[in-house]
Queue: 3 jobs
Job 1
Amino acid sequence: MPRSSAFRLWSAVQCRALLVGTVLTGHSRTGVRSQTGSPGSGRSGRDMTAPEPPSAPEPTPAPEPSPTPSTATAPPSAAAAATASGRAEPGAPYTDPTLGIPVTTSWRGEPRNRLVTIGDSLTQGFQSCAAFQTELSYPAIIAHELGWAEHFRHPSFDGCGGLPLNLEMLLRDIEDHCGPAIDWWDTPSALFRARRFMDKVEDYWERGAGCAPVSNTAINHNLAVFGWDLRDALDKSADVCRKMIGTPSDDLVLQVVGNPGERAALRTLPTRPPAAGALTQVTAAAELGEQTGGSRHGEATEDGEREADPDHGIETLIVFLGANNALSSVVELKVVWSGEGYDDLRTKARFTVWRPEHFASELRQLADAVGRIRARHVIWCTVPHVTIAPIARGVHGKAERGSRYFPYYTRPWIADSAFDPECDPHLTGEQARAVDEAIDQYNDAMAEVVRGARRGGRDWYLLDAAGLLDRLACRRYYEDEEARPRWWTPYPLPRELAGLDPVPNSRFLLSDGDRRSDGGLFSLDGVHPTTVAYGILAQELIEVMRRAGVEFRTPYGGQPRTGPVRVNFTRLMRRDTLINRPPANVTSGLHAIGWADEALDVLARALRFGRRGK
């Protein structure tokens, strides 16, 4: 339902009455004016927040892509080059994970660690503003299908709904006490319940059982930490994170866990023995890679215990990083291009999008470090186009016929008729295009890394996660035939998901009070996948692993699986509460989430991962 000015005013009055003398965290987001236009766009705007540092020059925008020539007019050499690069045509996704470069391999035995992952929130299993059920992350789903789930080590964040704030549990708590809808007369009660829930979560992770050190000495196989970018993966260790965590304070206003990413790292990265506290994501994976030969966890077949690989400690290493080098642009609805200090752990917090040359510099360092890890197969995942995520919804129709972009991108609960670019937070279409073009250059740099490795004889692969999301983007392509490039085809959902009513899509998840009425691929934060969507990503990675020759075994019994390996989506659907039982107060107007964000600043604070302030 459209926003109500009267409702917002009444909410503000009630909030201030409940917190006399205190400035609310959730100042009305609709009062924030937008940042200036994207580089080279020629647009101007007003910004009530701190402007981009003048010392950071505007980057040269990527040139506007020319129309893709038809097969009849395209030079044969260009078509051949596109095929050899792993693309069906210039500008299309990388469909061949080998990039058309064969590699001759010969393996002996089986590595002790069959699956290791380096990444951020997408790999950790984050959804609805929290790392919670990490046993349903895409790496854990793959481990289940490998028949290796009982050996796959991953951190746990079960307390108080996870870290930093479980939006689904928050809405369910409000629903239990205030009913399925939040009307203006419910505002004081709903605000009280929300504050109480957030205070409980903050206490648990900052001062309660959640801050207790993890005693396990074994290195986790899922090393991902939410909110981390390329530099974090290279430089942050448990020792570094301890120093970055300040003294916790029970703040009445900023009721969100402080330094959540660093706290998550202390449960993810090794901390014991003391010397292990210096290990980063990358060097921790390298330690697992050194575990060659020796016992295979007692795994046995009818022929006896399997022989261990004498050369590789890791069978498959997945690297999925880079989204956080651009994601803040849509979370904060502000484009601040990287400048001096982009490679500094503290200074980089002020940037929301990395310039392609800065990203490429970080990527080269990461690739060099990954190249020293003793892993048989390495799969690099490209960076998805963050502007597709429904946290930033396009309004006022497409900018022009056949365009991928809308004139403005704002919060999903702000209706087209109510959106006002003079006062509502937003990105312009030109800014969205600039962010996408930067990500395209990130991914081209990543493809070049894989291409160079394969030419050098390494068994590295590229999974185009950006292309996967593009094929699932309903508002960008599926619902607009004129905007579809020649290469585009809709992604064929697994039959279990295709049989649901409604069929899951990339819109913001909605409920009609009794059942899901729209969305289903993104969780309630509008950024991270639902459990079944993580299953789709797992399925794509399984296909690459099968191509690499990885043997999958039955989840129970460990017998080799023959034929196609399909993710058990029936199992995932049973566990996916957003698919089978979403909160009733996620109404058709996003009333509850819009209220939570405007009154409590929930999304920005939880998804900012402590980038600024608390």
Job 2
Amino acid sequence: MHERAGTPATESDLIDVEALVRAYYELKPDASVPAQRVAFGTSGHRGSALDTAFNEHHILAITQAICEYRAAQGITGPLFIGADTHALSAPAQTTALDVLVANGVRVLVDEYDDYVPTPAVSHAILKWNNDPARRAEGEADGIVITPSHNPPRDGGFKYNPPHGGPADSDATGWIANRANELIAGDLHEVNQAEPSGVETYDFRTNYVADLEHIIDIEAIKAAGIRIGADPLGGASASYWAAIRDHYGLDLTVVNARIDPKWSFMTLDWDGKIRMDPSSPSAMASVLEHAGDYDILTGNDADADRHGIVTPDGGLMNPNHYLAVAIEYLYAHRPGWRPDAAIGKTLVSSSIIDRVAASLGRRLWEVPVGFKWFVPGLVDGSVAFGGEESAGASFLRKDGTVWTTDKDGIILALLASEIRAVTGKSPSELYRELTERFGDPAYERVDAPATPDQKARLGKLDGDAITATELAGDPITATLSRAPGNDAAVGGVKVATDRAWFAARPSGTEDVYKIYAESFDGPEHLALVQQQAKRIVDAALG
């Protein structure tokens, strides 16, 4: 933990916005340098212009590759595009529009020239594609320009195909490879034109007016729930004001300030400015208002993540809130299919497994990455999909799809619905869950690893784990493929009856991540973590 974690940012912590944007246009990537190549992670291509990792050439090439990909897939409808409040997002959108228009793509930008949250883009794509008349004009897809909760110096660019969610690895792999080819060819095959004739779309009104079909707004209003919503300087600022005005809720936008330097933030655990609503350090200034509202929430820069603050419990651990949300929703959504599964990533808390069992619902456990939940959310076979990193979405009241990307706004509103309907805060309800299922201790730590070790860990087979015990208990499972969909997890998970750990290589640092949980307290968790490192190191040789 950094010595200044949780303290206000000072001038020395802030980026030079002009220098950052200048680097976006002036620095040219070399496709032969790995760190300067286009690389799609679980949430698109990310990097900083200052590191020659997110620059104009990258966006020109990626957008051209997307145009070629959608043409090859027969996608002929409109492309919805939205950007968040990071300094690199606006220039990246301008660059992308040049290429999209030159390639004859019908593009829809925000009607008010406003910032657009990730879930609003997903919602727009699905609204179009689920309307037979509009779909007849061609399927829609989208681009979201955001590095999510990353520091102010970063930029991000991700593609959402017609299913509305994050593109799968087949699509992103093709797009990244083609983009790198274009960069290596000095962009000679990239089409550019003045972005004239671009159409507009009212993302905000369409999204906000539809919320009553997924959240019990009337219950919140009738109970007089006092809501505080902090967008953390992100794209949801005007959305929260619109929600308040449209539905007449007792809702205060705690801080509506937009500043690409994020000078009002407190520093995260590592001393960096990061808009992570699940981090106590990043949320320190928000937590000062915890007693002023029945429910206080935070979102990251593109509003795909949520943070839930209650007067009695403070900032909730994301795993804890997911467990509460799941139990509440599956008991209060009679329109959902009785066989609809509960989706979780395999590094999320096992208290969700116990909640699922008590509900008599099938647990659908998948690798890290929200893309795995997309098919189930589309066809209604998975009613809720959530990640341990405070990202989730769920179905409408009638059991049809809402978004296929993470939606921090509906998860934040759900906390108020839970408070209104049950009369208890989500943190009170979590304490009740622990009385029934146990109180797990959960933590993620990092361990050093060479690039070769990371590569081998990503391909490790569960059979390579030779240990038979973990922290005093017999090992009951060693997994390298997810139980829900048999997809490779890019690492390994080892479980006992009381505890588990999962190890995955970092995509950006020479470390691997160890996620661990114990239902026998913090001391037992520490033992699990110690032995996890030894078990993984032994498997890697």
Job 3
Amino acid sequence: MAAAPDGTLYVGTGEPNPGGGSITYEGTGLYRSTDGGAHWTRLGLRDSGAISAITIDPADPRRIYVAAAGSLYNAGGDRGVYRSEDGGASWERILAGENGFTGATEIVVDGDRLYAVLWDHRRTPSLRTYGGVGSGVFRSTDDGRTWQRLGGGLPARGPDVGRIGLAVAGDRLYALVNQTSGPFEGFYSSTDGGDTWARTPDDPELTASQSSFGWWFGKVWIDPADTDHVHVAGVPLLTTKDAGRTWSADATSIHVDHHAMVWDPRRPGRVYLGNDGGVYRSDARGDGGWVASRHQPYTQLYSAAITPQDPTRISGGSQDNGSLRSWGAPDGGFDEYLGGDGEENLINPRDKDNVFACYQYGNCFRSTDGGDTLTYFADATTYERRNWFTPVVFDPRDPKILYYGSEVVNRSTDGGVTWQAISGDLSGGPGDDPVYTNYGTITSLAPAGDGRTVYAGTDDGRVWVTRDLGGTWTKLAEGRPWVTRVVVDEKDPDRVWTTHSAYRSGSPLAHVYGSTDGGRTWRDLSGNLPEAPVNDLVAARAGILYAATDQGVFTSFTGGGHWFRLGRGMPRVPVDDIEYDPSRNRLVAATFGRGFYELRTW
């Protein structure tokens, strides 16, 4: 976001920080509001993927600079540094990247000099490359007509240069450099406008702050009143008061994983901070005294869990805010009962105090007291690889029987205490990326009501079935996009549906398939669904289907093919999970960015 001197607001859409195992959502360009955000007009750059920075020329509010990171999944498009001389009516690209996956993450206007950061980054289902030869710091001294890649001590051009964070205050510049593989490479300082750079002394806290995923941060902020006072985004917030010679870390008074900071020009010393926990304010120049925003209605949820025993009980996994539950919180809201990136959550339909919760990559726990005490069980399963969102499901006949998917199917008959593998590797293998090793995994499991049939789907587009509890497995489909969900009719083990997402492959199309003969033949049920991945499916009464997509929830009364947007009141937000309670005709949706929604169906 950026505000012009006349109060005009500019907003760039899309997520410039790519995820590790999760989806990174692209935007739809740049928008402008002249009435404080009540109404918005799109200004172009529709194919920018993600807009990382907006800078308004302080001498001319109609001159706007934009850093467009580009699509993470498709080459080309509107990526690089753009300038508009007419308030966004038209755009000129003034700095292009070295290749089709080079985008811009920073643009700084400093008098007659321009500084930009370019970054190579690309994602496929099995590959994650967050750096490359196009990554670097660039400077123009002639208003963008020509550009120079800055060296003078910065890492040389090469495939191992990852994301770079840049801050400029006159001739003082700072650059945070990470490796393509994710870890910290170095912190650099320049006192001559970028001509020469010095690597600051190694500091273990600064190095550790980037963990193995420095591409999630890439930000440096200089105190406007003191150029020696600098904050750096990392897992903790890093601070130096002596231009990088020594550092301190704050990982306790605020949430971790930092992304945005701005100084209030009207209140000296007041700083606002944005991180994976929301928005904070400090009146001590960012050196502590943080106060969290009270109302933050934008939780990013991966999952939901409900129980017919108690409609007030809802739990779900949230991005970097753990597993949340609607019971146990002192203020009647939601209480975090397991940390990390909250993933699969389950509530036993026959015992509401028997709950399950996971954090990223299949680290799962069970509880018999509603989550007050948790017992880790994932190490009792068989696995080499586990997906970011590892599936755990109840058997529909007996919730003491559970299934857990790694690259193999695991089964428990004692409520998750002990586990046995009932399949071999159902994927095509881990892929070729030595860094991203959590590919080639099971992404959905669907046990049928006959006690023998289990379906499984994988991230490399395979669908399998066993009709004898793992004695033999039959491949039903392959070559499809990433399987987001497999659903089986509890009363008819031959009636099965699958949903898919090709988003990581660069396609927005919807994919829903159905079979009435146990997967021997399939029918494409996608029909008139919008061009958006389908994340979940519910088969309800009388053949009604509910589909959770990246643009909300849709329903079909004809078993698929013809779909209607379901209900009112939900924005067009990604819905990762929907849960259905047939006893109350109730749906609960977990949205990625707007919290939980509930709907009473017919």
